[in-house]
């Protein structure tokens, strides 16, 4: 299926490959910056290039590569399909919280693939929900010491506020000098011609792909294990068609015993939890390989070591010998011996002499050693077998002075706590660690919340949301193993406002008693009360209580603030009546109907009232107090005097004068019905401007003043005392 598709879309590319990439064809200039001369596609977004290697990157982040081990003398050849044509068969998969995304083909593009010629890199960024993924494809020094290796790095950053599980899969469609069925070799395993997988500690340090197992001159090498990098959890050598057309762009089950022709190499890093603000890197390497020796005996291995975290890397490094049988008979029990000079040594469980049981006529077999660098210097190591010797040089750099100083971690909180040490919202704690100049560098940061489990991160932030006090303990470790002394930070969060209780309560009607007081209490279960203030009819309350010495309608407002800055306000009306004479009292609320407020007849909402009205003993003067509030209209009516009161059975009506919001001269008539225990209480108030008789409010605006049509209460009660 794949072959037919490639033929249809790549006739022109195939022609160019035939002209430029077969052995012996005319070579490409070492300064390989014009890809169009080699069949580069117009869709290429930018391709890092050195004199040894080129990585092509498409606008969707897909990639391929090619190069030459000997610029100017050896023709360029491809090491992944179908360089120099447009890349499409090699790509990476990002797994976020169980969902799979092909990098560059889904999600939100933050940065299109962009080339940086100076650093020989191409970077792009795609985002999947909260997870931001940066792809960096860069040419770096390989085992030969030349700029002939591609670094394929994915930096995953959690830009959200909660943790996410993220995994990465990188799939490379290998092709060596147009051989799309490039065979593999793996140290300790040998030739790999069928699908095979490696996991855990069986992950090899490197793997190699060849144009032909019998001719290792044209080869590529991938590096899986390198100090400072997280090795993959799984590595598979497979048939490209099988993995490309699998049911999932993440999962794959190998077909044991099935040829890996049309070969591909795939790395998996299983999903890990990445905290809010944290970043993780996943990286592998693929580029040109190199060997030393002859067609009968050849050797491959590192030619230089890096310094990572103050130590040599890779160390130990793998050395592989290839022994070919170019005689006319089967070779049995072939001894191959490695020679290492002082300054290098073999891993303790290894021996210098390895025996290859059998090599068929025309076949090539291999054997590998793990070599340890013990001192800086320039060295030559070699292997001897079948009467020949193959040698290779390696440069081991001088290590920096030992790092004996522990790193330091800084901790900052957003938002910062107030002067009482409390926050009233979620808190983000950011951690950043630095090592001393010339030190080994920060390896990781550890933290513990309260007495919970220890967490290890590279840096970033930790979110706190629970109400209460939590202890955050943290410390850093550098690559030399120095451990910082623990530090701690107390996180105080209170997002709940205080509670307020009053006596009497809102809308309550109570009799006047000797020594009567209004009281309030405030409580807060977390940070505690910081301030509490209150007023009765605009007069400040001191000590949490206010003396009540006369009947009337009382407005109260209480505000409490806790130490975290959360505030609560409780306001309302209560009525106090004198039970010694006939009178009417009421307190409650109702839903104000459309049209009740002529200045804006569309206004509706909750209207609150409280009143007491009576004749004083031995007099015909009506006294009392009336309060009415229609908050959506910003209307607050307060009576100043009464003219008359009429009580007839369960109906009471009285007339008087008052102010709105403390100003003006307004008349009012209040009508109330005490429904008793069997019927609902009802209420009506009409307020007008006495200067021009304009109605300001009337919840039964179309009814006459003596109408029996009133509004039923939504809460509270009306009582006629006889």
TrEMBL record:
UniProt keyword Signal, yes or no: yes
Cell cycle recorded as keyword: no
One matching Pfam family: Big_3_2
The protein's name in its UniProt record: Ig-like domain (Group 3)
Superkingdom, natural source: Bacteria
Entry keywords, A to Z: Signal
Signal peptide positions on this chain: 1-24
Entry-linked NCBIfam families: barrel_OmpL47
Domain Ig-like: 434-495, 542-578
């Amino acid at each position: 299926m794949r072959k037919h598709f490639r033929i249809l879309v790549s006739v022109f590319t195939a022609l160019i490959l035939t002209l430029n990439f077969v052995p012996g064809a005319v070579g490409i200039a070492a300064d390989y910056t014009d890809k169009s001369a080699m069949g580069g596609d117009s869709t290429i977004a930018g391709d890092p290039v050195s004199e040894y290697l080129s990585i092509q990157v498409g606008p969707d982040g897909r990639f391929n590569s090619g190069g030459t081990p000997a610029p100017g003398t050896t023709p360029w050849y491809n090491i992944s399909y179908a360089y120099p044509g447009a890349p499409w068969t090699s790509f990476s998969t990002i797994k976020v919280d169980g969902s799979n995304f092909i990098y560059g083909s889904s999600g939100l593009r933050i940065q299109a693939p962009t080339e940086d010629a100076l650093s020989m890199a191409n970077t792009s960024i795609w985002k999947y929900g909260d997870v931001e993924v940066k792809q960096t494809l860069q040419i770096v020094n390989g085992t030969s010491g030349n700029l002939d290796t591609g670094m394929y790095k994915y930096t995953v950053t959690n830009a959200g506020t909660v943790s996410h599980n993220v995994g990465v899969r990188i799939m490379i469609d290998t092709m060596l000098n147009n051989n799309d069925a490039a065979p593999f070799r793996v140290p300790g395993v040998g030739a790999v011609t069928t699908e095979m997988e490696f996991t855990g500690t069986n992950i090899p340090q490197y793997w190699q792909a060849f144009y032909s197992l019998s001719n290792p001159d044209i080869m590529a090498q991938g590096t899986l294990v390198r100090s400072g990098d997280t090795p993959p959890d799984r590595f598979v050598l497979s048939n490209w068609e099988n993995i490309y057309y699998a049911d999932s762009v993440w999962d794959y089950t190998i077909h044991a015993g099935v040829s890996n022709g049309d070969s591909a190499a795939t790395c998996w890093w299983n999903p890990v939890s990445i905290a809010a603000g944290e970043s993780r890197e996943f990286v592998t390497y693929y580029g040109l390989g190199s060997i030393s020796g002859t067609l009968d005996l050849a050797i491959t291995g590192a030619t230089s070591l890096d310094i990572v975290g103050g130590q040599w890397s890779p160390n130990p490094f793998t050395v592989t010998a290839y022994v070919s049988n170019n005689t006319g008979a089967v070779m049995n029990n072939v001894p191959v011996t490695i020679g290492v000079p002082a300054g290098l040594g073999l891993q303790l469980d290894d021996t210098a002499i390895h025996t290859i049981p059998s090599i068929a006529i025309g076949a090539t077999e291999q054997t590998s050693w793990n070599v340890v660098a013990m001192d800086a210097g320039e060295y030559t190591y070699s292997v001897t077998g079948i009467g020949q010797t193959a040698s290779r040089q390696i440069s081991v750099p001088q290590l920096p002075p030992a790092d004996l100083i522990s790193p330091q971690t800084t901790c900052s909180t957003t938002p910062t706590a107030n002067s009482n040490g409390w926050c009233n919202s979620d808190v983000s704690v950011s951690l950043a660690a630095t090592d001393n100049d010339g030190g080994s560098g920060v390896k990781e940061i550890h933290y513990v919340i309260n007495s919970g489990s220890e967490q290890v991160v590279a840096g970033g932030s930790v979110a706190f949301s629970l109400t209460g006090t939590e202890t955050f303990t943290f410390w850093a470790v550098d690559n030399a193993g120095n451990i910082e002394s623990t530090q701690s930070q107390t996180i105080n969060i209170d997002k709940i406002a205080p509670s307020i209780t009053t006596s009497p309560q809102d809308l309550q009607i109570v009799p006047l008693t000797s020594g009567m007081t209004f009281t309030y209490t405030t409580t807060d279960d977390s940070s505690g009360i910081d301030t509490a203030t209150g007023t009765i009819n605009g007069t400040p309350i001191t000590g949490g209580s206010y003396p009540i010495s006369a009947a009337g309608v009382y407005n109260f407002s209480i505000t409490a603030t806790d130490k975290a800055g959360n505030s609560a306000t409780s306001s309302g009306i209560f009525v106090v009546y004198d039970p010694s004479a006939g009178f009417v009292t009421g307190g409650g609320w109702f839903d104000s109907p459309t049209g009740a407020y002529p200045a804006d007849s569309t206004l509706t909402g909750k209207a609150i009232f409280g009143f007491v009205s009576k004749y004083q003993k031995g007099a015909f003067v009506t006294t009392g107090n009336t309060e009415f509030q229609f908050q959506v209209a910003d209307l607050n009516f307060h009576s100043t005097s009464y003219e008359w009161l009429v009580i007839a059975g369960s109906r009471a009506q009285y007339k008087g004068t008052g102010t709105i919001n403390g100003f003006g001269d307004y008349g009012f008539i209040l009508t109330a019905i005490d429904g008793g225990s069997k019927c609902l209480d009802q209420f009506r108030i009409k307020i007008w401007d006495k200067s021009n008789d304009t109605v300001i409010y009337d919840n039964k605006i179309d009814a006459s003043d003596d109408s029996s049509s009133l509004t039923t209460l939504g809460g509270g009660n009306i009582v006629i005392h006889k």
